[in-house]
Design goal:
By secondary structure, this protein is an alpha/beta fold. The protein is built from five helices and six strands. Strands 2-3-1-4-5-6 form a six-stranded mixed sheet, sandwiched between helices. The protein is about 35% helix and about 20% strand. Necessary for normal cell division and for the maintenance of normal septation.
């Protein structure tokens, strides 16, 4: 039996280049996953041990990435299979949204899909250190048009939001 099957999963999803890798490194307090300016570097479901109680699960981003349609379709099937097979292990899904961009049509699809699958999730606005107050306000409004779940605010560069995310991961 795979060892990652015996602990809850906290899954990070979001569009390519939203800051998933940086957020994972911030939560772990060290560089565990590579950070790249090129979108689409995460190409498989990755299980990262997080303390004794949980696994962080990094999945490929959706949206822009310089990959073929065939590879993008393979990522979609891989994610569908992961969520179908291991959904009962999912403690939380963190849906990452860039605070400078707000909700994209692909984020709306993900919100609808999370609701359809009845998965517990939180919206995590990333890169708040690089966003203006107007951009953050606009991002919050765009999130609220589509969901009422809690919104968490993070900056991987400044460590903002780490304590709040850790509470959800480790409690």
């Amino acid at each position: 039996m795979e060892e990652w099957l015996d602990k809850p999963h906290v899954v990070l999803v979001g569009r390519s280049n939203v800051g998933k890798s940086s957020l994972i490194n911030m939560l772990l307090g060290k560089k565990v996953v590579a950070v790249s300016k090129d979108p689409g570097r995460t190409r498989r479901v990755t299980f990262i041990p997080f303390g004794e109680k949980v696994y962080l699960v990094d999945v490929p981003g959706y949206g822009y990435a310089r990959v073929s349609h065939r590879e993008r379709e393979a990522w979609r099937r891989m994610m569908e299979e992961y969520f179908s097979r291991y959904g009962e292990l999912i403690k939380w899904v963190f849906l990452l949204i860039d605070s400078r961009v707000g909700v994209t049509p692909l984020d709306v699809q993900m919100i609808e899909w999370l609701h359809y699958r009845k998965l517990p999730y939180k919206v995590v606005l990333t890169k708040v250190d690089a966003a203006t107050q107007d951009e953050i306000s606009s991002a919050i409004k765009s999130v609220r048009k589509h969901t009422t779940v809690e919104i968490l605010f993070t900056s991987s560069r400044e460590g903002k939001g780490k304590k709040e995310l850790l509470q959800y991961c480790l409690d």
